[in-house]
Amino acid sequence: MDMSKNETCEKNLIEIFKVISWLDDKRWDQVERPDVFPDVFVEKVIKAKELQAKQKILIHWLIYITDRGKGADVLWEKNTPKIKELVVRYFGDGLSEKAEVKELCEKHEKENKIGAFPADLESIKRTLVLLLNYDKNIITFITRRLSEWKKENSDKFCARIAFSLYLLSYKGVGSLAKSEERRRQNQDELNEKTEEANGILQDDCQFDKQFERWYGQRWHKRIWAAVRDYKKFRPLSDIFIAGIKGQANKDIWRKDFTKQLELPGDIWNARFFKNCTRPIAEKMGIRGTKAPKVLRDLWEGIRSKCPESYPEQFDISFDFTPRMCEKNLCAICPFGRNGAKLICIPTKDKYCPVALITCGYVGKCTGKQNRCVVKEGRGKGTCQGGGIKWV
Known about the structure:
Elements (H helix, E strand, L loop, with lengths): L2 H26 L10 H8 L6 H14 L5 H21 L5 H15 L5 H13 L7 H6 L2 H7 L4 H13 L10 H6 L1 H16 L1 H12 L5 H12 L1 H10 L3 H8 L12 H10 L1 H6 L7 H12 L14 H7 L29 H7 L32
Helix pairs in contact: 2-4, 3-4, 3-13, 3-14, 4-5, 5-6, 11-12, 13-14, 16-19
């Protein structure tokens, strides 16, 4: 690839990252819609005074286990009360043995019909069984080695948290519990997988060895979406920090480690990636079909030139793609031929129409006198969808 093409690719990539970062700021700083979850989760979990921090985070984690293959809003509406009841019973029934937890889960499945695949129901049971070793406290589990990992592996400590959660709920479950029949047939082997995961969690040497193998395949949507929420969604972050034991660990969680977060890839990320960033990656010689991995590789090459950006921010495509790409609204897209200037009307203290139209985010406009990536035309003409060709 000649230097001029390489420079063009890098320039466009930086432009895209800057706009994505701007939209992500709008996402988490919304004025009128600060909550990103359905009202039932906010009211029954986040605002529930009768729940402890460790219970709220566990409910959130278990709902995320079920969050696939269905509309997210409907799923969270239906599963929140059912999973909340399970967690309340888990803490309130005096359960302390694996057999008791398994019995509770089996009984709850029959009575409450959580909307989930068989493998997800097995993952929920496995999670509750393994958390017995951590006083049923998922916050303690997540942060149990936080200070140590931060000190010894400062650039990967967040990934180690993610791997811990993978062991807690997912490793070895999926293929053995694809259907209820397979789940029943393979229950002995699933129990062995649970014990195997527990052994890895309890053995530091084995944990480190297994982590290095897993690290190259760490792109697990539901894990990274949950960890992201504990860091970036203020209500959950405050709950999480309140539940952390020890000031040192609280201080670490408050510091900025967002650049270690991975993109929770889904179909909307993939569709955005196809038009906007994959063409750049291919021209730069970066191959791959997994958007989270390719975006991480692309970002590593330009991170010093856009320090406010990082790969996880591309999750705004979950909101952006169905509103823009699926409706072919290239004429008003920040990445389209003309950029978003036709819908950018800078007015201080009014809402930003670009963030609202492209992603549904209700955020304040910075006005004419302040810097704004859209007003400056950042990102214009960088998407190769809609017939645009720039190299």
